[in-house]
C-alpha cells in the first residue's frame, strides 16, 4: 500500500492562515507604554543637561575661587615682609625710627 500525501482542503488552509483579530486595547497599552518610555527618556535627557550645566557653573566658580585664593596668598606674603610692615607703621601709626624726627604737615 502506498501512502500519498493529501493536499489540504481550502477549509484547513484557511484555519491555518487565519489572521488575529484587531485588539484595540492591547494596541493602546503598547502605545501607552511606548509614550511613557519616550517621555521618561526625554525627562532624563533634560535632567542630564541641567546637571551638566550646573557642573560647568560650579567648575567655573571653583576656578575663580582658586584664582582669588592664589591672589590672597600672594598678598599675605607681601604683607608679612618687614619692609611692608615698616611702611604701614610709618603711614598709619606715625612711628619713626630711633634718631628720626617726625614732621607732620600743617593742617588747616
What distinguishing features does this structure have?
108 residues; mainly alpha
Task: Describe the protein in words.
The protein has three helices and no strands. It has 108 residues and is mainly α.
Topology diagram in text:
Elements: H1 10-16, H2 24-79, H3 82-92
Gyration radius from CA atoms, angstroms = 44 Å
Tell me the β content.
under 5%
Helix content percent band? 55-70%
Mean pLDDT: 84
Pattern of helices and strands: HHH
Short account of what is shown:
This protein has 108 residues and is mainly α. Helices cover 69% and strands 0% of the residues.
Amino acid at each position: 500500500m502506498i501512502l500519498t500525501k493529501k493536499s489540504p482542503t481550502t477549509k484547513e488552509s484557511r484555519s491555518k492562515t487565519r489572521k488575529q483579530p484587531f485588539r484595540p486595547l492591547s494596541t493602546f497599552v503598547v502605545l501607552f507604554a511606548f509614550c511613557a518610555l519616550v517621555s521618561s527618556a526625554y525627562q532624563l535627557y533634560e535632567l542630564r543637561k541641567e546637571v551638566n550645566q550646573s557642573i560647568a557653573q560650579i567648575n567655573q566658580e571653583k576656578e575663580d575661587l582658586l584664582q582669588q585664593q592664589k591672589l590672597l596668598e600672594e598678598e599675605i606674603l607681601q604683607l608679612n615682609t618687614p619692609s611692608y610692615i615698616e611702611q604701614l607703621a610709618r603711614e598709619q601709626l606715625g612711628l619713626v625710627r630711633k634718631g628720626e624726627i617726625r614732621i607732620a604737615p600743617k593742617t588747616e
